[in-house]
Structure formats: C-alpha cells, structure tokens
Design brief:
alpha+beta; Thiol Ester Dehydrase, Chain A; five-stranded antiparallel β-sheet; two-stranded antiparallel ribbon; 2 helices
Length: 129
C-alpha cells in the first residue's frame, strides 16, 4: 500500500433510502425503512473509499469481515450519512469503524475489515473457488 493510510483517515458518503433498500423477504416488504443489509453494503463502501486511494498498482482489497448493530430506522425517502474511520492499518489489512446517521441521530455502528493482496495472488485464490 502507498504511504499515508493511518488510523484516523476517514471517508463519508450519503444515500437516499429507496423502495429497493427495504427489508424484503419472499417478495414481501416487511417495513418501509432501510434494511440492515443495505447498511452493510454502505459500510463496506465507506471502508473501500478509505482504501482505494492507497492501493498500489497491482494490489486489490478484499472484504473479509463486517459487523453491524442496527438500532434505529431511516424511512424510505430519507437521507442516510455513513462515516468510516480507519482504526487499524498494516501493509496488508485495514480495519474501519463505521457509523450511520439519519440527521443527527445515530442509527447503526459497525466494523469492516479488508485484506490487501497482490492481484496475481488474488487471482490464484479466486481460481480455487
């Protein structure tokens, strides 16, 4: 990885909750709010935004872990803000703490981990799958 990625580096993004982001099971929308799995997607995206500018040519990041505590709703049509912050950095691993907000209210917290591989090594690993 390129130098400069240290604990404290952060990234932020926002998204509007759409109908497709609701919790839907067996084609039935359960609630008119943002689903937990949608938040997981954006948590991973926040971590990726932190990492992407520090990857060397020939390197790639791979998500290996995500946790989330989703404790507040954001209705369809509302805007959610996601903030990720690097907390642990090594030459082959990035750990981020992530939070989601609706307005000033925190609605979720979590953690993501990405491992960094040379693309050639990653290609060999993926061939096994």
């Amino acid at each position: 990885m390129k130098p400069g990625l240290t604990a404290g580096v952060s990234a932020e993004l926002t998204f509007e909750v759409t109908d497709e982001m609701r919790p839907i099971f067996d084609q039935v929308a359960v609630h008119q709010v943002c689903s937990t799995w949608t938040l997981v997607h954006y948590f991973e995206l926040a971590g990726r935004k932190i990492l992407i500018g520090f990857l060397e040519e020939g390197e790639e990041g791979v998500g290996s872990h995500v946790t989330i505590d989703h404790f507040g709703p954001a209705k369809v049509g509302r805007t959610v803000r996601v903030v990720g912050r690097a907390t642990e950095v090594s030459d082959r691993r990035l750990v981020c703490e992530v939070e989601a907000f609706f307005g000033d209210r925190k609605i979720a917290t979590g953690r993501t981990v990405q491992n960094v591989f040379p693309r050639a090594v990653l290609a060999r690993l993926l061939e096994r799958g």
